[in-house]
Amino acid sequence: MPAARTLSAAQVAELLGGELVGPGGVLLGDIRSLEEATPESLSLLASSRYLSCFQRSRAGAVVTTPEFKDVHPGPKTRILVDNPYEAIQRVGKLLCPEPEPSWGIAPGARIGQGTTWQGRIAIGAGAVLGRNVTLGRDCRIGPYAVVEDGVTMGDRCEIGACALIASEVTLGNEVKVGPGARIGTPGFGFFRTETGHQRVFHRGACHIADGVEIGANSTIDRGSLGSTSIGKGTKIDNLVHIAHNVRVGERCLIMAQVGIAGSTVVEDEVILAGQAGLADHLTVGRQARVAAQAGVIGNVEAGLTVSGYPARPHREVLRQTAALRRLSRMVDQLERLVSEQFHEPTS
Questions:
Q1: What pLDDT sits at residue 58?
Q2: What is d(CA 225, CA 245) in angstroms, rounded to the nearest whole number?
Q3: What is the Cα 88 distance to its own chain's centre?
Q4: 201 inside domain
Q5: Is the confidence at residue 1, as pLDDT, over 60?
Q6: Mean pLDDT over all residues of the chain?
Q7: Do residues 115 and 105 make contact, with C-beta atoms less than 8 angstroms apart?
């Protein structure tokens, strides 16, 4: 494991090109949340939602924006940058370096005939690589992961423990697949016969482009006859299901427990918030936003934010919710009037 470094606040500010406020000699050895930080910790404040935590924090220094330069109380040493998240990522590689992979093939791993790779490789204990698998440089296959016949991966791919990459799936460069994920399995498609439900033929492709990240226990089905594809730079959270023949564009964010039904198209830079559900054969336009737990049963225009079930423009949903609240108060008033009318004392 690379040795962690200790940096002064002044060194961190210089590294980030940020403005140093307060003592620069504070020594920093790790990165922690505002709540858990110690006087030797670097922390982060990027939103006013965490201002109360900042004001109580014991952090030695905090990376934040110019907006919080003069907030009192709070840690005296502050490093002001435009994008705290990007800044903490850069300095984190020095203060909290990742462990070096155990390059080589662990005991108990099995490698099929015709499988090849370039440069270094790390294959964990109990992992299985099928026949004619092609791997790029510096790929890592976790313990008990399975990579079936004919899979192709680019450089610097990471496959988590117990994940499955099914046969003939293609992964680009720097793809990360979380533990327990399933990529390229047959979709849920059946047709009815006199003797029961028969599975639809699923031998299509599954293409994962460069820089895609797929969270733990997520599933991406292969196409039936066509392809399922995930575009460059898209990030997928844990417990997401993407069905057969879905096409997801570039730089999308898909959060936990989202489900996308078959043959739906999600264009570039779309955000699908947690537990959103998309019906089949839809198109969600570029840079659209689907709110948490929304149920999408029709196309979504580019750039539009939708919420609710069935999903509608978010402003419309807010207006309808406000109208229902007003209506409930009106009903209460009406009931009181009726009650008073029927219980009026007689002379």
A1: 96
A2: 8
A3: 18
A4: yes
A5: no
A6: 93
A7: no
